[in-house]
Backbone:
């Protein structure tokens, strides 16, 4: 049936007799769009491209041209940004804090701050920390500056979602704890040192030995009698010497030990009775 429909399809197809032959070098694939109408001049706001505070420069150009200033450039937000920028630059020169300090003094911080390895998207000028969930950006910035002298220029917060885990006994499902991570921008780069080759090999050896111990603990049948080779035979129990003792000697020693224990108990009971009766 399929061959029949293929035959019909090819029967209706009629290729062109004189198909034009064109060289690819003679064809412009990305042809520029045709310009319709007069070319418009750039706006005054588009002329400023290399300024840290462009709104101030754009406002000045509009005033010089005698044109009304657009509403989005006639604000005080850039004045506040310039004031904060000058305050931070002055703090960098003097070594003071580049932010407003907190009013509560904490002499023994209990928070656990963990420096994590950066991801592939992070630059050497960024560092990532694992912080408590009740920590905010101001706390981390204040903590790093006073404890380590590290300036956190920008702080980004990431609150990870909890994962579902199952109980090993009844397979009940519950959510684990949440983790909070913060990424900061720094003045100077920091690159994690490479792990020494000896340390990596040692960690791999320990991991392999631990796997061998787990496999030995879950062995069944006659495999349990095999000696574990993990950790250079550390888990092999030493075989104690079993000296041969005749049965008669063993029975005689057991009777003597029983008589000694009975006499010791009688002496102890008499001593307690004499103390009770004041004899």
Residues:
């Amino acid at each position: 049936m399929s061959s029949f429909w293929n035959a019909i399809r090819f029967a209706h197809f009629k290729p062109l007799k004189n198909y034009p032959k064109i060289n690819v070098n003679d064809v412009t694939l990305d042809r520029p769009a045709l310009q319709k109408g007069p070319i418009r001049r750039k706006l005054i706001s588009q002329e400023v491209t290399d300024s840290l505070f462009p709104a101030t420069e754009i406002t000045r150009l509009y005033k010089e041209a005698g044109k009304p200033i657009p509403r989005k450039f006639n604000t005080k937000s850039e004045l506040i940004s310039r004031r904060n920028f000058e305050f931070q630059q002055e703090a960098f020169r003097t070594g003071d804090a580049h932010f407003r300090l907190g009013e509560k003094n904490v002499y023994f911080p209990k928070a656990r701050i963990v420096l994590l390895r950066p991801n592939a998207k992070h630059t050497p000028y960024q560092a990532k920390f694992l912080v408590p969930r009740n920590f905010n950006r101001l706390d981390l910035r204040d903590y790093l500056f006073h404890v380590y002298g590290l300036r956190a220029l920008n702080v980004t917060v990431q609150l990870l979602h909890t994962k579902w885990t199952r109980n090993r006994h009844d397979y009940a499902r519950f959510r684990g704890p949440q983790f909070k991570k913060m990424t900061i921008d720094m003045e100077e780069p920091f690159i994690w040192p490479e792990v020494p080759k000896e340390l990596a090999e040692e960690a791999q050896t320990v991991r392999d030995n631990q796997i061998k111990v787990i496999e030995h603990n879950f062995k069944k049948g006659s495999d349990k009698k095999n000696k574990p080779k993990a950790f250079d035979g550390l888990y092999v129990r030493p075989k104690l010497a079993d000296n041969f003792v005749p049965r008669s000697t063993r029975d005689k020693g057991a009777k003597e030990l029983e008589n000694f224990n009975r006499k010791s108990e009688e002496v102890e009971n008499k001593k307690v009775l004499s103390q009770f009766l004041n004899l």
In short: The chain has a mean pLDDT of 85.
